[in-house]
Sequence to fold (324 residues):
Amino acid sequence: MVTRRLAERLLRTAARRWPAEVRDELSREWHAELHVLAERGERLRMLRFAGSLAVGRARVPLVARSGLDGPFRRTVATLLLAPPAGVAIILVAAVLMNLVYNQLLATVSWANAVQLPVLTGVTAGLAVLLARVVRRGAARTARTGPARNALGVVLPIGVTAVLVEYTLNETTEKLTRVAPGLVLWLAGLTLSLYGAGLLAGRGRVRAAWLVGVLGALVAADLAVVLTVVNLISGGPETVIDGVAQGDTVDRVSAPLWLFTSWTDWSFGLPRPTKREIFLITDLVELQPFLYLACTPYALAYAIRAARPAAPEPIAPPAPVPSGA
Fold:
């Protein structure tokens, strides 16, 4: 009897060290085990069992821990896998563009004009599908606030973009030429995601999408403008042997450069000219399509992860028996 009472006191001491929400359940399990050992007459094992629990370190129980680890693992998987998926979208779109171009080249004269529009259209369509997948995943990820959500989305995109640009350019010198525009886009995208997350957290989902889309477009446009301004002169054209080289881009059309790089078109305006369009698209190459592939899912994740969790349904009260 003395051994049993001592073991029970040790179990009560151990139970007080655990969180209140799991304390009663654990105490019942421990006392059930203690009863089994007492029935077998294993007094030494009773004391060893109760003593190990009393001096051992309290840990989060497995049930609760899996609830914390699950959302965390899903968050990490979603944020790390989405940027490579965005790059894969561009590759798939490029393959489809080549198929369309090769089929049209022999039959129509305007085949060259459809290359970028097809690439943009396919990229945008696949990006929306990726955003829908990420949005569903965001509903089950960890909720960390709009600032952490924005940084969690943007950092993997930045790492992926640097790796892709380095792979394509093969030298750090070329990478540094496009780096300012890329950094500007990442900073602008972070602010856009943060603003959208704040609004979504307050239940203003439509306003969140509006702010997010407009902010992301402005960030992408400014990034393209910065890249072009840094690397292509806006002054008089270089003249060699009396022939103008057409190596400048007039700054007056700067707000259109992002959309020009997606469409290969000046939208009926005198600027940018065809020569300027060629210089712009040849310079920025992948960047505008990376922006297009990653922005939809980035906004979808930031907005969905910031929205308030749906309230748990309240069970109706049990009916009172008529005879009560």
The radius of gyration is 31 Å. Residues 62-105 form the longest helix (44 residues).
